């Protein structure tokens, strides 16, 4: 099988774009693959519930060195570490983005958190804690961002009391 059809097959099987498939093609054709890249792809598959990550694919296409750094370091090394379970890591990431006021990434990672067992109430509690760590304006922004994520997923507010 030639390289391009093989890459397309891998892309189709993994649910990732063609560029993301490039990280695992060497293993498929008998060459050693980068284990950090493979771990990064596994992480994004788990986080996104198999949907992939278009921003990562675009980075790897348009700025390969930067995209590969995200794949190998941020996803493969940091997010791929087993020191924290995925739920705890996603709660920490959402809290950090809430405190920074980085709403686009908060939304992405809130979705990943929901994909991996974090409850909507836990995310709302992160927004509440943000009032203490970063102030009410950042907390209100985080709550608004979570409202958008919940609406996209059909999660009605106010949440039912458990």
UniProtKB/TrEMBL annotation:
Q: Which Gene3D superfamilies match?
A: AhpD-like
Alphabetical list of SUPFAM superfamilies matching this protein: AhpD-like
Q: Which domain of life is it from?
A: Bacteria
The record, for InterPro entries, names: 4CMD/NDH-1_regulator, AhpD-like, CMD-like
Q: Which GO terms describe its molecular function?
A: peroxiredoxin activity
A Pfam family annotated for this UniProt entry: CMD
Q: What's the protein here called?
A: Uncharacterized protein
